[in-house]
Amino acid sequence: MSDYEGDQSTHRLEQVFTSIDPMQVRMARDLLDAGGIDAFIFDDEASRLLGSTVAVRARLMVHADCADEARECLKELGFTH
Asked: pTM of the entire structure?
């Protein structure tokens, strides 16, 4: 069994924040990273390519086992969906 097949909660990602403004998503990622939570941005390039329209929102993803903590941290810092 590979490491990937082991603990699925550490490999599964959950969305914790979205925005049509990729800069907001990058700021939220940097704040989570500074707090020790690994965060990943999805759809950033597509959002910018389409001019930050509501069609494609940049998404901030974290490991599933850190999702609740990340959401709480972002909420405390004023980042809401």
From this structure: 0.76
What domains can be seen in the chain, in order of their start residue?
12-76 (3.30.70.790)
Helices (H), 20-64: 22-34, 44-49
Q: What is the pLDDT along the chain (81 residues), one digit of tens a residue?
A: 345 555 555 579 999 999 888 889 999 999 999 999 999 999 876 655 655 555 678 899 999 999 999 999 999 989 876
- Distinct helix (H) and strand (E) counts, the chain: 4, 3
